[in-house]
Amino acid sequence: MCVREGAAVILPEPRGPLSADVVRALRADGEVRRDVEATDEEDFHLSLWLLYELHYRSFEGVDDSLEWSPPLLALRRALEEQFEAELRGACAPLVARAEQADGVPDQLAAIASFDSGTSLPLFLQREATRDQYLEFLVQRSLYHLKESDPQAWALPRLDGPAKVALAELQYDEFGGGRPERLHSRLFAEALAAAGLESSFGAYVNRVPSYTLAVNNAMSLFGLHRRLRGAAMGHLAAFEMTSSLPCRRLLQGADRLELPEAVGHYFDEHVEADAVHEHLASRGICGALVGAEPDLQSDVLFGAAACVHLDAVVAERMVDAWTHGQSTLLAEAGENVA
Amino acid sequence: MSECEITVVPGGPALVRGAGFVRDEDGNRHEVGRAVVAVCLCGLTQRAPWCDSTHKVAGD
């Protein structure tokens, strides 16, 4: 199977006036207009995602120096302020509930055990068709092909035991010294084996705003030192809600007789994340709050953001599937059914 | 011989660092494949000797 690594990402199709202006500016000198606003969630989250990707892999034909372009950074800040305020509002009830528990690990466990009523892993385990499972892989490709990259931004902002625990967790995510075991590579192999595109960003035009929002939250937390607590809380919740669901996803892949590489990716995460959840909740977040008690509320906010955004994804995807619809956006030139 | 460190997580598995292999109750040898492994302590795992987080749905 062929896995392309390091391929240039093509600038996506705009979804409204704001993302159109960002794409235009990225092809030029980074000067965005100041009088353009996002028309909807699609336009908003694609614009923010475009601005964040300048800090990761950027895009073909975009000048690398635009990563630090003042007009683009000013726009990013305005979008981030709106996104963070919305997230904090949506997460407040979950955080308040968690604060009734004692100690960071139990508080994180309270958030991670939140049941929104719709389980995406359960649907994929028992009901999803092959096409629906492949749609799930496409949606997840936006994150899993750069798995653990957003959390790496936090490393120089931590110290002592929390830093050691994050490095230990990321060493495993990044292959444990073996390039063939990079988790992003395992996912690329799963995509390729399933007949899907395996290069980063290949499906960005098909992925709706709720999945872009999941990725934007990780970049928001990762790129701001101020939000290092939220970044690590998010990581903890992600890991604490991964091991058991990955077993369901593995069983779903087996039920649908998907290629072995698909099951292998989730199989790896059953055991890996049974380790990572303890490294993240106790080793990282427990130590971080011990060293910097003021970060406790942000640790819980980050965890709640992870759980909240995942619940939105689950609700939207399962709702579409149960109504016989695709969760993916139509390809360019294709009419929406 | 390198040092092996075992950390018991309250209500969870034992995190083992520095081990080369883990021997299960039947004497079978399981190679350690990552820097830190979680060894099941509750006996409910479906992939012994490794923890698969089943303890979280088993109740206390």
UniProtKB/TrEMBL annotation, chain A:
Family matches, as InterPro entries: Haem_Oase-like_multi-hlx (IPR016084)
Entry protein name: Iron-containing redox enzyme family protein
Organism: Nocardioides humilatus
Lineage of the organism: Bacteria, Bacillati, Actinomycetota, Actinomycetes, Propionibacteriales
UniProtKB/TrEMBL annotation, chain B:
UniProt keyword annotations, A-Z: 2Fe-2S, Iron, Iron-sulfur, Metal-binding
The keyword Manganese is annotated on this UniProt entry: no
Start and end residues of each Iron-binding zinc finger CDGSH type domain: 12-56
Gene Ontology annotations for the cellular component aspect, listed alphabetically: cytoplasm
InterPro entries in UniProt: FeS-contain_CDGSH-typ, MitoNEET_CISD
Molecular functions per Gene Ontology: 2 iron, 2 sulfur cluster binding; metal ion binding
Protein name from the UniProt record: CDGSH iron-sulfur domain-containing protein
Organism: Nocardioides humilatus
